[in-house]
Amino acid sequence: MDYKEPKETYAGVVREVTIGKGGKALKVGGENILPLHFFDGGSLPNPPRFALEVLDMEPADKTPHLIEPFGDVLSDPIKWAKKCEGFGVDAICLSLVSTDPAEKDTPSEVAAQLVKRMVSEIKKPLIVYGSGDEKKDAELLPKVAQVCAGENLLLGPVQKENFEVVGKAILDNGHVAIAQSPLDINLLKELNVKLCKFLPPERVVIDPLSSALGYGIEYSFSLIERVKQIGVMTKDSMTMMPIIANLGDECWKTKQAKENKTQGLLWEGITAISLYLAGANILVLRHPETLKSIKETIGR
Amino acid sequence: MIIIGENIHVIAKDVSVAIRERNAKVIQGLAKEQTGAKANYIDINVGPMKKDTEETMKWLVNCVQEATDLPLSVDTMNPVAMEAGVKFCKKRPLINSASGKTDSKAQMLPLAKKYNCDVVISVMTDKGMPPEVESKIDSIMETVSYANELGIPNEAVWVDPIILPVSTAGEGQKIAVGNLEFIKILQEVIPGVKSTVGLSNVSNGVPAHLRPILNRTYLVMLGRNGLYSAIADPLDEELMAFMQGELPKITDLIYRTMDGEEINLSPLSQKEVAYVKTARVLMAQSLYSDAWLEI
Question: What is the model's pTM?
Answer without folding.
Answer: 0.88
